[in-house]
Structures are given as structure tokens and as C-alpha cells.
């Protein structure tokens, strides 16, 4: 996808501008991590949960007539999780301490989301153009199917009867005393 160092640089600049941030992550709307700066937190788990929360938030905004998704804020006892739209196919998720200035968090998060969205959308546009300009990949011609090879049938097994007297039995014999 887009060059990870470019997004990672933006995440680090964002964390420098808002010192109360404890983590920053960019993910696709499908939950795949694009870049992260999240010490002590598993980025794959956060990205997957972000995708799930995003699905609910998009549905909520649509159902209530509030338009396209822009941001989602979750406040916990120890701080905030804020998710911002980042272009058409990515989101920016920020983790912040409880003492963060929420107005500053929103201001910087929205700006960073817009910049990251531009990076991701530009990369995707280039990828689409490259795919459209590439000559079509032709599938190899199919070879005609060969007739199945038949093996000769096994000759039937002929069973013959043997004389009755030659059969052995496992019968117990008892003697009278």
C-alpha cells in the first residue's frame, strides 16, 4: 500500500504536537494496519476493533441522517480513543490520556487524518492507473481434455467347490467319562 514511512512520520509528528497521545495508528477500513506508533498496545487488535467500531459508527450516522462518517470518540476512565476518517479507505485512531485537551485532540486528529487520507488516496489512484495501463493478463490456452485411459477389467474370480471331506473344523470334541 502507501509508503509506510510517510504515514509513520505523520503519526510521530502528531504525537509531538499532542504530548498526551499514548498511541497513533492508521488502518484500512477493513482493519488492516497501514502504520502504527502504539507502544504497549497490539496494533492488529486495535485496527480490528477500529474496523468493528467504524462499521457501527457509519451505520449510526447513516440511520440518523447525519451524513458520512467523520469521527468517533470513546471516553474511558483512563483516557480517550478517537477515530477519524482518513480519505476514502483509511482511518486514523488515536489513544490519549484522560488529561488531553479534547479540542486540541480533535483539531490535530482531523488535520492528520486529512493528510494521511491524501497519501493513501493518492497511492490508491496510482495503483488503479497502473492496473488500467497494464496489458491484460491472458490465461493460457486450455488444452483439450484427453480421453480417460481405461485399464482392462480384472478377470472374474472363479470359485470352485472343494470336496467336503477335506474341510477342517474347529469343533470341540468331548469324551464321556
The low-confidence runs, each spanning 5 or more residues with pLDDT under 50, are: none
How would you spell out the order of helices and strands?
HEEHEEEH
As a percent range, the share of helical residues equals 25-40%
By DSSP, the count of extended strands is 5
What oligomeric assembly is this protein in? Answer: single chain
Spatial sequence of strands, sheet with the most strands: 2-1-5-4-3
Shape: elongated
Distance between the termini: 97 Å
* Fraction in beta strands: 15-25%
| Structure annotation, total helices | 3
Please identify the structural class as seen in this structure: alpha+beta
Main beta sheet: 5 strands, antiparallel
Average pLDDT metric: 85
Radius of gyration: 35 Å
Q: Please, could you describe this protein's structure?
A:
The chain has 177 residues and is an alpha+beta fold. Helix content is 38%, strand content 19%. The protein is built from 3 helices and 5 strands. The protein has helices at 4-17, 43-63, 102-133, and strands at 21-28, 33-37, 71-76, 79-85, 90-97. It has a 5-stranded antiparallel β-sheet with strand order 2-1-5-4-3, sandwiched between helices. Helix 1 runs antiparallel to helix 3. The longest helix is centred in the middle third of the chain and has 32 residues, at 102-133. It is elongated and about 95 Å long.
Amino acid at each position: 500500500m502507501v509508503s509506510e514511512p510517510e504515514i509513520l512520520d505523520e503519526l510521530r509528528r502528531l504525537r509531538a504536537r499532542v504530548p498526551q497521545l499514548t498511541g497513533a495508528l492508521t488502518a484500512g477500513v477493513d482493519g488492516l494496519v497501514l502504520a502504527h506508533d502504539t507502544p504497549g498496545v497490539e496494533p492488529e487488535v486495535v485496527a480490528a476493533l477500529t474496523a468493528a467500531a467504524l462499521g457501527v459508527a457509519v451505520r449510526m450516522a447513516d440511520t440518523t441522517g447525519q451524513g458520512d462518517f467523520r469521527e468517533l470518540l470513546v471516553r474511558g476512565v483512563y483516557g480517550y480513543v478517537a477515530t477519524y476518517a482518513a480519505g476514502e479507505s483509511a482511518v486514523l485512531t488515536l489513544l490519549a490520556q484522560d488529561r488531553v485537551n479534547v479540542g486540541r485532540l480533535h483539531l490535530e486528529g482531523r488535520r492528520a487524518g486529512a493528510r494521511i487520507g491524501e497519501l493513501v488516496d493518492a497511492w490508491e489512484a496510482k495503483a488503479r492507473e497502473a492496473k488500467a495501463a497494464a496489458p491484460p493478463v491472458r490465461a493460457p490456452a486450455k488444452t483439450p481434455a484427453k480421453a480417460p485411459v481405461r485399464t482392462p477389467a480384472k478377470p472374474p474370480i472363479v470359485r470352485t467347490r472343494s470336496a467336503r471331506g477335506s474341510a477342517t473344523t474347529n469343533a470341540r470334541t468331548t469324551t464321556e467319562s
